[in-house]
């Protein structure tokens, strides 16, 4: 991963705390990491945490200010060699599948030409919902790649599918994707 430019997107799910470990692993492997967070993600983990781990400013909004405005989502979309969204919530999957770009992360993902790896995390019933299933199938047909979700203990205390893959598994899937060996 040395010298690779990796954009990590974080959405608003309880699994967002695992993304801290993912960013740390990427940096330890020598990657240059930028983080983009949805507003909901900031309710679970603060941007300062990701800033400290990545050693880069974290982007949470499309518009910084009228004086500083730039097309940061376009700049990030072009900068990234790969994009990882972890966790990827049902809301995020549905928005991207439908081409909805109403926050900095969806805008960036829709604008990038880099490979995108999605690590879903949600309640098992949500994962099995026909709308989410359709979104996942559509995203795969667009060329998006997936790692997980896996079965395990979910935040609500039940064992079911929907748990986000662990950071080392996401890292391995990203390395395979960058090496041209991605399966899904």
Q: Topology as H/E string?
A: EHEHHEHHEHHEEEH
Strand order of the largest sheet: 2-1-3-4-5
CATH architecture: 3-Layer(aba) Sandwich
Examine the coordinates and then state which fold CATH places here, giving the name of the CATH topology: Rossmann fold
How large is the count of helical segments? 8
Helix share, percent: 40-55%
Rounded Rg: 15 Å
Strand content: 15-25%
Number of β-strand runs? 7
The best one-word shape is globular
CATH domain class: Alpha Beta
What is the assigned CATH homologous superfamily? Flavin prenyltransferase-like
Biggest pleated sheet: 5 strands, parallel
Q: Quickly give the structural class.
A: alpha/beta
How many individual domains? Answer: 1
Whole-number mean pLDDT = 91
Distance between the termini: 20 Å
């Amino acid at each position: 991963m040395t010298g690779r430019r990796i954009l990590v997107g974080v959405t608003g799910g309880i699994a967002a705390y695992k993304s801290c470990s993912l960013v740390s692993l990427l940096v330890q492997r020598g990657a240059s990491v930028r983080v983009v967070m949805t507003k909901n993600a900031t309710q679970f983990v603060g941007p300062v945490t990701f800033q400290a781990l990545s050693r880069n400013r974290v982007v949470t909004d499309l518009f910084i200010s009228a004086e500083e405005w730039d097309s940061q989502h376009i700049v990030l979309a072009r900068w990234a060699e790969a994009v990882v969204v972890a966790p990827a919530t049902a809301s995020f999957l549905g928005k991207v599948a439908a081409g909805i770009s109403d926050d900095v992360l969806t805008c960036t993902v829709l604008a990038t030409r880099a490979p995108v790896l999605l690590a879903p995390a949600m309640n098992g019933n949500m994962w099995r919902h026909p709308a989410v299933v359709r979104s996942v199938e559509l995203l795969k047909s667009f060329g998006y790649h997936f790692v997980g979700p896996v079965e395990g203990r979910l935040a609500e205390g039940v064992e079911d599918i929907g748990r986000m893959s662990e950071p080392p598994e996401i890292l391995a899937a990203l390395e395979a994707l960058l090496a041209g060996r991605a399966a899904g």
